[in-house]
Amino acid sequence: MDLKSIKAIYRFIKSTDIVEIEVEGEGGKVRLRRGTPGLGAQTDELGTYEGSGAAPVAAPAAAAPAPVETADNIEIIASPMVGTFYRASSPDAASFVEIGSVVRSGHPLCIIEAMKLMNEVESEYNGKIVSILVENGQPVEYGEPLFHVEVSK
Known about the structure:
By secondary structure, the protein is mainly beta.
């Protein structure tokens, strides 16, 4: 089961009253569960993917988290996907950035591993890293803040 199929299933259940669905195919199976506010269930979509050597995956959240108030020149770089956060390209490599690192737009900041694919997250701003909000190797959600960047003027 590929990501395109999983996304199609997600769009399907989002447009219906279905709360949970499990679909099995050649490459594994996927289960998507949708919470309903007010019924005591979880309010975000969760999914698991089970197949040979597959990693867990969650469906995109229905809404982005509430914005965090920061200083005027501090911007947040958030996770573009669900996955595992890595500060370096390999365990023995140096971190892409440290607190105090000066970055330019397009500079790699970290890697998010999702379904065994390594996705580089790049800076959207020119500035200085003032905080790293996630520990190396920790799971992250879509929209979860990863870095605070003091934007250069």
